Amino acid sequence: MPTSETESVNTENVSGEGENQGCCGSLWCWWRRRGATKAGPSGCRRWGQAISKSKLSRRWRRWNRFSRRRCRAAVKSVTFYWLVIVLVFLNTLTISSEHYDQPDWLTQIQDIANKVLLALFTCEMLVKMYSLGLQAYFVSLFNRFDCFVVCGGITETILVELEIMSPLGISVFRCVRLLRIFKVTRHWTSLSNLVASLLNSMKSIASLLLLLFLFIIIFSLLGMQLFGGKFNFDETQTKRSTFDNFPQALLTVFQILTGEDWNAVMYDGIMAYGGPSSSGMIVCIYFIILFICDNLADAESLNTAQKEEAEEKERKKIARKESLENKKNNKPEVNQIANSDNKVTIDDYREEDEDKDPYPPCDVPVGEEEEEEEEDEPEVPAGPRPRRISELNMKEKITPIPEGSAFFILSKTNPIRVGCHKLINHHIFTNLILVFIMLSSAALAAEDPIRSHSFRNTILGYFDYAFTAIFTVEILLKMTTFGAFLHKGAFCRNYFNLLDMLVVGVSLVSFGIQSSAISVVKILRVLRVLRPLRAINRAKGLKHVVQCVFVAIRTIGNIMIVTTLLQFMFACIGVQLFKGKFYRCTDEAKSNPEECRGLFILYKDGDVDNPVVRERIWQNSDFNFDNVLSAMMALFTVSTFEGWPALLYKAIDSNGENVGPIYNYRVEISIFFIIYIIIVAFFMMNIFVGFVIVTFQEQGEKEYKNCELDKNQRQCVEYALKARPLRRYIPKNPYQYKFWYVVNSSPFEYMMFVLIMLNTLCLAMQHYEQSKMFNDAMDILNMVFTGVFTVEMVLKVIAFKPKTEEQILAEL
Questions:
Q1: Do domains 415-537 and 555-583+620-702 have the same CATH topology?
Q2: CATH number of the structural domain 76-184
Q3: Do the annotations mark residue 642 as ligand-binding?
Q4: Are residues 450 and 464 in contact, defined by beta-carbon separation less than 8 angstroms?
């Protein structure tokens, strides 16, 4: 080969290329010795082309490795990441800008922006495939999702441009791109952990959703057999929640599971079989069983989650035991144990000891009523009850006087400051301030908002002066004790104290400018409603609740972000599906704005003898999807289950933009609402509630953070402290013993139980417009039952002796 070509080779794999060069030289000598002249000049050319092709392939492989390495570094860089995030936000802005009746220039800009963004996302996908390789690219779930969205967008664009299908504006595929915004979780650890937990939770409830779907199918088929075609008993009304066909039955059962207007469906089912006075009440069993199955599905999901958690904990314990046994068998030296990476912590030993707990959790309930215990042991005098552990910790510690001077004058040992400290920490002073807070709140509630200068408001105004003066003196005493705000532990360094100061300051300022006519006075007087909040700083229980609320608000911030993003995505999809399609004319016979003009006659309640003349108006629904904000508001009402079936059937009847509705025109569109309710209303809203409950439990356990016992052990100790020996009362008098034996016998108890059930049945048989004979029979039975229960009371009084009034009342 020429020397100029060999010198241009890259320095990579020098040894390999030298070996190839030596190999090629030896082959060339061998070929010349074998008589290359016989082959002629064509054989030389073929051999030279083969050598040049191998050299070009090596150069291509080196360049390919170099470019893929550079592309991989660029793809994994922070700059590329934030560039993609910016494109996602631009895509989000483009999607959210679409609305009903938008100008043509905005539509053109949106189409161009969608095509440009689709091309950029396609380039991103191709660059990632080239740099990472197909196998490594499709390992990531987000990459597979991106590929699916991009391919769907390309397919849709081709079909629209070739006029194979009508344009869908910004299609559902383009709206699904909004899920890419979750890529921001890569540098947001808490949100990333939350999204991962939500995805794992969704995987775990997949079986529950399948079970729920089977329940819905079964009850839909059963409802079609029971109520199919029987909800048409009222000709003046058209029922929407029916069982006339399978899709409608599925929607009706799903509506009952959400709890919205389920009673109306049940009443329609009762009336379909003749009403409550006939066999219609039997159909209530259908709805009762449906609710029970729904609750059983929820309970099964909780039980499955608890089993999985218990199994995971058991596996961890077994793994720790095996690691401990391996360490014991290996017998490492002390230095090796100290330098080992797999250290056994105190928590590991603590969990190890939990398996060998000599005091296992008790199954006996802690909160037994003392009245039952006293009933079983009437002769044992009740001594002082041992205090519960929670009661021992409820005593609030008195805050000492902080270091530093108050108002730069009063030192820590000043008698005035010490006296103020004793006064504000006295229980009488604290209770008196609470009474004044409640009285001031009652005075605010008693004011007359209509006649501001009435005699009652004048009297209450004088009381307001007195309460404000008392609260001002309280704040001054506390500032004298703790100081203002310059040193640690000062009065103004506590948020609850600042709330007190705000309320009192608002009252003082409103008094100072009361004669002015400006509107600030009204605002300040409105802020006086915060006065009841001053009780929070005086009641420890309320203070803990407020602290838990603030902690829960900080905790659910990430959940709120995820829920808002999901709701925003569904709102964008809803705009594409329903924008401008919820308009309708007040005259149902007209289906477009041009026809919806003039007057029409409406027959009230279907009575032809009661006509009413109305004007035709082309109006929109109160909840619509004309823009993203209106769509989010409509979906929020759906997530609360309040009136969502009405919005569902408006969507089903929607036809086109500026076109009136058609009955059951698009039943398949209900899938959009069902998916939204399952993901947002069922899943995310319950996570909100779960986080709040967990936060309150964690805050409650912080009270025992210094206690070495766990919750079950504390309950056992509390039960042991509260337990008392039980004694059974047996009379010594032989005649009284006979009565006692009869009263405590099983036949007597069963007989009284049957009589109680018969009495309850007689009371339940009473109804409206019952006959005189029936009334007389009920009165006689009532007197008979009263006499029997009186005899029972007398027998028990004789058997147990009327020792105390409380025990007699307990027997009653």
A1: no
A2: 1.20.120.350
A3: yes
A4: no
